[in-house]
C-alpha cells in the first residue's frame, strides 16, 4: 500500500486551525503557512507514490509527463546539432512518415503518431548524449533499425525523437577462435551471414528479410532455424545498452556462459526498446554445417502433416527446420508465379537438414519414413544446391506471394503469430483455418511447426479491417486457452499489448511494469509498448 | 539527480524565523511549528529518495531496515503456525546450523549468520502467505532446497526465516507430447531423470549431485552437458514465483517459445533467490538419445589438450560433453582409489557422445583424429554401457577424490569457477596451474572445457584460508582481464559479489541493484547476495 502523502498534507492542514491568533501578525503567519503548505504540496506532487510492493499496477502509475512543446524540441534540436551535426538530424516529412509505420504493420497508425525529428548517431557515446538531453528535457524516444516489425513496435505514440541507427552498421570484430562476433545494431542478419561465410561461420536467427540486430534483440526474434538452433535469446552473449538517463552499461564481457549476476542480456532481449537502447552486441556464431539439404512433402490434411512433425519431434531428430504451409498458401505461391515451378496445392512441410553428409542422409531417411507413416502424398529432397534453392524458394516466397495479390493501396496484409504447446498445434491450426474460411478473406497459414508457432497471413482491405482483427483476436484467444502465447516471435508492440494480462495474469504484467518503471521512471523509451503506461480510452480494448 | 527532500525541510526551517511574534501565543505557535516540522521530517525519512535515474548506486540506497526482534519473530511464529502447523516450523539448533552453510562452501560463515527459524511450506499458497507475513513484519527470508551451492548463496546474513522447500518435491505433470514437465522446486535433477527415463525422456542440466530445481534456477546452473545442450537458462519454459510482498506471478504458460513481454523467466534464472521464490517450474525435456558413448584421451600438456578441444569446437562437432581433468586431478583419483582402475596421471579429456549409432561412431572418429593431431598419449572409447560407466567414473569422482584427501575437520575444499572466451582457456588454465604449484597447496583443475569454463579445486586447512583465497582472487582477476566472467556456473552468492563491478562495471551492477530494489524494496529476499545492499566494512573487500 503506498504511503499516501496527500494524507500527510491534509493532516497538516487540519493542524493549522490557528483560530486563537488574530490581527495582522496572524494574517502574515497564515500567509506563510499557506505558501509553505503549497510548497509542500507541490513537492509532494512531484514525488511518486512510494510503495513497498513488488509490482506496479496501472492504477498506481502516474501518467508519464513528457515535454514535446516546440520551444523544448527546438532547444533539443540546437543541442543535438552540436553533438551530431545538422546533417544527422532530419525533420523531413517523408522520413518522419517512414519511421512511423509500414504497409505490412498490423498496427493502424494514428495521425499524431509520428516522430518530431530523427537523429542518426554514430556511436554509443552519441546515443548516451542524445539520451541525456532527452532525459533532461523529458522528450520521448523511439529506436529504429530495420523497420521490419509488424505489431507497431516503432510507431511513436507520443511523438518525440526517433533514433535511427542506420549509421551504426559495422561489424566491429570477429573472434573466429572464440566463435563470437561484435556488431553494431544496424547490421542486417543477411549481410552478417554473408560476411561470416567467408570465415566458414554462421549466425542462425533468420527473421524477416531486412531485419537488423538492434530490432532482432528488441523483438526477441527467431525464424525458420529456431527449432534446431533456438531464438535470438540463445545467440546473444552480451549487449551494450544506453539506459533512459544516458547511463551506458555492458551486460557481459565475452564468456560463452556466465552465472555472474542477473541476466540483463536476456532482460533486454524482447524488451522492444522500452528498457534500453542496444548500441553494440556480441553474438555467438557456429561453424557452417558441412552439408545441408532440403526436403518437401505434401499431405492430405493439416493434421496428417502435424502427425509427421509430431513423430519427428518426438524422436528428437535434429533437423535444421520444419515449416508448414497450408493449401491456400501453396495456391498463392502458384498464383503469384514467384517460384520457377508449380506445387501441389495441399498442406506441405518444408524441411532443412544440416550436418555432416552422413548425418544429413540419415535425417532425410528418418523424415521420409515419418512422412510415409503420416500418409504423405509427395516427398522430394534436394540432391544439389540448385535443387535446395528451388525447393526452399516456395517457403521463402510465402509472405510475398500473398503481398503480391494486393490489388491496390487499400489492400493490406496482416501477419499475426501465436505459439502453443506442440501437441495443440493441429487443433489451433484447424480451428483457425475454419475461421479463416468462414471469413471469406484470402488467408493462409505458415508455421514454424517444430516450435508450435504459426502465422495467419490475412489479405484484407480498408473496409475489412475489423474482420481481420476479429480473426486474429479469436486466434490469440484460442492460443491462450491452449496454454500458449499471444506471440511466438513477432513481439507485443501495440497490437498484442492488451492481450498480455489474459496470457500471463495482471500481476505478471504489473511486475513487468515495475521493471519498466525502475529502469525508465520517466517512460521515455518507446513508451506505451509491451505494457500499458496509460489507461485505455473507452472502446480501445476489444472485449475478451 | 535525486530530489533532495532534506533540502526541502531545511528551506522550510529557514522560512520559520518568526522573530516578530512574541509571548505565549508565539510559543504555542512555535511548538506547533516544531511538531509539524518533525512530523514532516519523519514523513520524509520514511520516503525513499526519489530519482529519475535508471540505476541505483549503493551510495543512494538506504540501509535495509528489518525487524528481527524477539517480539516480532514470536508474533510471526504464531501466525506461521496457523498457516503451516507447528510441525512445519523448526527452531532446532542443528537444523538452523544445517541451513547456514556447508563444509564445501567457500564462504566463511559468521556466527550470527543463521536463520531464526525454518518453515516448510507445501504449496505456492503457503509460500505467498509466508511472504505476506514477512513483508508486513519486515523479516528477511532465505530460500533453501538442495543446499549444494558453494558461494554462500543460502547463508542468511541477516537471520530471519529460512524457507525450506523440502515438502514441495513433486513432479506435478509430465506432458510427453509437448516435451515438457511441471515440477516443484525440491525435485532433484537425478530423480527427475530417473522418472523421465521411464518415458524415454531426458532433462540435460547436470550440476552437482543433490542439486534441486529451485536452487538450479537460482544459480542458473549448468554442468557437463552444457556444451551440447546449454545451461539451465535454455531448459526452463516458465516459473511460478512468489515475490517479496507475497504476490504470485507465473512468467509464461507452456509454449516452446514466446516473444510476449519481458523475459521474466530468464530474469529469475540466476537471481539466487534475491528477486523471487520459485514454487513451480515448467521444464523442457527431450527424447533420450538412442545411443551414447564415452571416450577418454590423455595429453602431454594442458595446451595440447586445449588444442584438441579447439579443433573439435571449431568444427562444430556436436559432442555431448568435453571435460578436462589435469594431471594433479588424475593423481588424486588414483590416490583416492575411488574408481576401479588406475589412470595415466596426465591432462585428460573426457568426451560424451549422444545420437543415433551412426552419429556417435562418426563423432568418435572425428574426435580420435583431433586427439591425434593434438599429440595425444592415449585414447580409449567405450564399446558397452559398462565401459562407458567405467570411463566416466573418473570424471564423476573428481571433486570427491579431492574431498577424500581431507585429513580432519580443519581441512576444506574450495571449488572456484571462472569462464573465459574459448581461445583464452589454455592461457588461464596454465597461469592458474603455475599459481597453484607455487602455493604448495594440493589443487586440481577440472573444466567444462567446451564452454571455456573451469574449476580450481583447492584443498586447504584453517590456517591456509588466505592462501586459497589469494589463488581464487588471482584466477578471477585473470578471467576478467581475458574478457571472461567471475563465475561460469557457481553463481555469485557472497564470495564473488565484490568482483562483479570489475567484471561488469559499476553502472551495470547499479542497474542490477535498481531491479532488485524494484521487485523487493525492503530487501527481504536473500538480502546481500549477488549485489551489495550495504557498504562494506573496513577490510571486507580484498584490494584489486
From TrEMBL, chains A, B:
InterPro entries: FAD-bd_oxidored_4_C, FAD-bd_PCMH, FAD-bd_PCMH-like_sf, FAD-bd_PCMH_sub2, FAD-linked_Oxase-like_C, Oxid_FAD_bind_N, Vanillyl_alc_oxidase_C-sub2
Residues that span the membrane, as ranges: none
Gene Ontology molecular functions: D-lactate dehydrogenase (cytochrome) activity; D-lactate dehydrogenase (NAD+) activity; FAD binding
Enzyme Commission (EC) number: 1.1.2.4
Keyword Oxidoreductase: yes
Enzyme class: oxidoreductase
The protein's required cofactors: FAD
A cellular-component GO term for this protein: mitochondrion
Keyword Oxidoreductase assigned: yes
UniProt keyword list: FAD, Flavoprotein, Oxidoreductase
Domain of life: Eukaryota
Location of the FAD-binding PCMH-type domain: 111-288
Catalytic activity: (R)-lactate + 2 Fe(III)-[cytochrome c] = 2 Fe(II)-[cytochrome c] + pyruvate + 2 H(+)
GO biological process, one term: lactate catabolic process
Family of this protein: Belongs to the FAD-binding oxidoreductase/transferase type 4 family.
PANTHER family, per database record: D-LACTATE DEHYDROGENASE, D-LACTATE DEHYDROGENASE (CYTOCHROME) (AFU_ORTHOLOGUE AFUA_7G02560)
Protein name: D-lactate dehydrogenase (cytochrome)
Organism: Oidiodendron maius (strain Zn)
Amino acid at each position: 500500500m503506498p504511503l499516501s502523502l496527500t494524507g500527510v498534507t491534509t493532516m497538516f492542514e487540519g493542524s493549522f486551525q490557528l483560530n486563537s491568533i488574530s490581527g495582522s501578525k496572524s494574517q502574515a503567519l497564515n500567509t506563510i503557512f499557506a505558501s509553505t503548505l503549497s510548497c509542500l504540496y507541490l513537492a509532494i506532487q512531484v514525488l511518486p507514490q512510494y510503495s513497498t510492493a513488488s509490482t506496479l499496477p496501472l492504477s498506481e502509475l502516474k501518467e508519464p509527463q513528457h515535454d514535446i512543446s516546440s520551444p523544448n524540441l527546438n532547444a533539443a534540436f540546437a543541442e543535438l546539432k552540436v553533438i551530431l551535426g545538422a546533417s544527422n538530424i532530419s525533420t523531413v516529412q517523408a522520413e518522419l512518415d517512414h519511421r512511423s509505420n509500414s504497409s505490412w504493420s498490423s498496427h493502424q497508425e494514428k495521425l499524431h503518431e509520428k516522430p518530431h525529428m530523427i537523429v542518426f548517431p554514430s556511436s554509443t557515446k552519441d546515443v548516451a548524449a542524445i539520451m541525456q538531453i532527452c532525459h533532461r528535457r523529458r522528450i520521448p524516444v523511439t529506436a529504429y533499425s530495420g523497420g521490419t516489425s509488424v505489431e507497431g513496435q516503432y510507431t511513436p505514440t507520443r511523438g518525440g525523437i526517433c533514433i535511427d541507427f542506420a549509421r551504426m552498421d559495422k561489424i566491429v570484430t570477429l573472434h573466429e577462435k572464440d566463435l563470437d562476433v561484435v556488431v553494431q545494431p544496424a547490421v542486417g542478419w543477411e549481410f552478417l551471414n554473408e560476411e561470416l561465410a567467408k570465415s566458414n561461420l554462421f549466425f542462425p536467427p533468420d527473421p524477416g528479410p531486412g531485419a537488423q540486430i538492434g530490432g532482432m534483440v528488441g523483438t526477441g526474434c527467431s525464424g525458420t532455424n529456431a527449432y534446431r538452433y533456438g531464438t535470438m535469446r540463445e545467440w546473444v552473449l552480451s549487449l551494450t545498452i544506453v539506459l533512459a538517463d544516458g547511463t551506458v552499461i555492458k551486460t557481459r564481457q565475452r564468456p560463452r556462459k556466465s552465472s555472474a549476476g542477473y541476466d540483463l542480456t536476456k532482460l533486454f532481449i524482447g524488451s522492444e526498446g522500452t528498457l534500453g537502447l542496444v548500441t553494440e552486441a556480441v553474438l555467438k556464431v557456429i561453424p557452417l554445417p558441412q552439408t545441408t539439404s532440403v526436403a518437401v512433402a505434401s499431405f492430405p490434411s493439416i493434421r496428417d502433416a502435424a502427425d509427421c512433425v509430431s513423430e519427428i519431434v518426438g524422436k528428437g531428430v535434429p533437423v535444421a527446420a520444419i515449416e508448414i504451409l497450408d493449401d491456400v498458401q501453396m495456391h498463392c505461391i502458384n498464383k503469384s508465379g514467384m517460384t520457377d515451378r508449380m506445387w501441389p496445392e495441399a498442406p506441405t512441410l518444408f524441411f532443412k537438414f544440416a550436418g555432416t553428409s552422413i548425418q544429413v542422409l540419415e535425417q532425410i531417411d528418418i523424415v521420409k519414413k515419418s512422412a510415409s507413416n503420416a500418409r504423405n502424398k509427395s516427398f522430394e529432397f534436394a540432391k544439389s544446391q540448385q535443387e535446395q534453392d528451388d525447393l526452399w524458394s516456395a517457403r521463402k516466397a510465402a509472405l510475398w506471394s500473398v503481398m503480391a495479390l494486393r490489388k491496390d493501396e487499400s489492400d493490406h496484409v496482416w501477419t499475426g503469430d501465436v505459439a502453443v504447446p506442440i501437441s495443440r498445434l493441429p487443433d489451433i491450426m484447424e480451428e483457425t483455418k475454419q475461421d479463416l474460411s468462414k471469413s471469406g478473406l484470402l488467408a493462409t497459414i505458415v508455421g514454424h511447426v517444430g516450435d508450435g508457432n504459426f502465422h495467419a497471413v490475412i489479405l484484407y482491405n480498408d473496409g475489412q479491417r475489423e474482420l481481420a482483427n476479429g480473426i486474429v483476436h479469436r486466434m490469440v484467444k484460442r492460443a491462450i486457452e491452449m496454454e500458449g502465447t499471444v506471440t511466438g516471435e513477432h513481439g507485443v508492440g501495440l497490437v498484442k499489448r492488451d492481450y498480455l494480462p489474459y496470457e500471463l495474469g495482471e500481476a505478471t504484467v504489473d511486475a513487468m511494469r515495475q521493471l519498466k518503471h525502475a529502469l525508465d521512471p520517466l517512460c521515455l523509451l518507446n513508451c506505451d509498448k509491451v505494457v500499458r503506461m496509460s489507461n485505455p480510452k473507452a472502446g480501445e480494448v476489444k472485449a475478451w
